[in-house]
Structure prediction request, 458 residues.
Amino acid sequence: MSVQKSKKAGPAKKVADKPAGKVAAAPLRKRGRPRAFEPEAALRNALDTFRETGFAATSLDDLSTAMGINRPSLYNTFGDKRELFLRAYQQYRQETGALFAPALDPKLTLRQMLEMVFATAINLYLSGENGPRGCFTVMTAASEAMSDPEIRALVQKAITGADRNLAERFRLAVKSGELSATADCAALAQAASATIQSIALRARAHVARTELEEMARNAIELIAGPARR
Amino acid sequence: MSVQKSKKAGPAKKVADKPAGKVAAAPLRKRGRPRAFEPEAALRNALDTFRETGFAATSLDDLSTAMGINRPSLYNTFGDKRELFLRAYQQYRQETGALFAPALDPKLTLRQMLEMVFATAINLYLSGENGPRGCFTVMTAASEAMSDPEIRALVQKAITGADRNLAERFRLAVKSGELSATADCAALAQAASATIQSIALRARAHVARTELEEMARNAIELIAGPARR
DNA sequence: GCCAATTTATGCGGAACGGTATAAAAATCA
DNA sequence: TGATTTTTATACCGTTCCGCATAAATTGGC
Prediction:
């Protein structure tokens, strides 16, 4: 019974075959009763819930309430709790990727880039209705990374991806002369990454925004200050 | 088993308002059946368990098994799960404080200090029978900090305490001429703290020891390198 | 030896957990 | 309209959870 994955080569089999743009209403209606919720919005709500209470402490009742759908619909659409967590985390990575992208615009100066990156991080990590939520990668996903290799791989990708993106931007700064040719771009990128992660941790501990901003300023001075030129 | 020396000579009738020693083995036996476990060792095992699986995912059965005592004894000695967690965290802070203390010895040079601090952190965060456990403050306690003000206060104290200890050591380096008088000690201390926290995070994500060591070397160069003199 | 005090051992009880069975509802297709 | 397909809604199942009640075990005091 129940859902063997018969690949009968039928089309339209895939659930969300193609996001294909941010258009919400796909005009082609499937056969049966239409769903009464938007999967993307529901996933956003699941993400918010996981961000606040973590994986283990979030029950399926919490999730189905926050997402506005019942348990069976949840299972049909997203699979079990762990699968939902994985999809929520991927959603988070996608969202934050888009959030940080403008700061990496090559047209900005190095200092402007760092200022934007840190400001974006502070705003993101301090957001939350019930207090600052920190970073999903640093706080929530990393906790599960110990027991779950798949989550661990995603966390690793998130960390090294940030390192790489920043390092690339630093290399650009060397080319443009903003940084000395002897600057160790990978090292500077890791320092910036570590600053972001520390800001996430401190935000979760309710360190005041002004202190986080000062930490960011200090890091900019250390990383891109006169000593590096 | 057990058998401590009965000091039958001294009547010691009074309920001993204050023996008040920090001596571990109090020779005076209390009235009833003696406990069959050592609270300190049990707490250590509880700490290990919490470090591996976090707060919510650790059941009282897990704890009582790991600690080698039954649930009622656990409750009588340590209170409920949350109280046990708090005590385990305090135990962790005490242990790690002692672990890092030698590195802060003022007789060491600044670079030696940083090398020892980072080496200690790497060893601590990579330890664990079931894989690297990271830092209890960064991973486990910070997760609970959102919903629990008392834990949050402890996390804050751990973070700012590390900042302060390092800053003090940097100020010493300014006095000794190892650092320029214009160095921002608080900023450098936060950078070192952030590096430690990032190492903890990366350890949990199974980043290789060699990479962590390279990150430490890079951080030392950035913080105490020629540019700061 | 008997009593009081304290800890250990067993196991219960109500609640919450994750996951699913089952049937009603709402759409398309014929 | 009736059959088919898909989603929704309700309610349940077995397990695990936390915390505690209860009784046996082990000590010191008299």
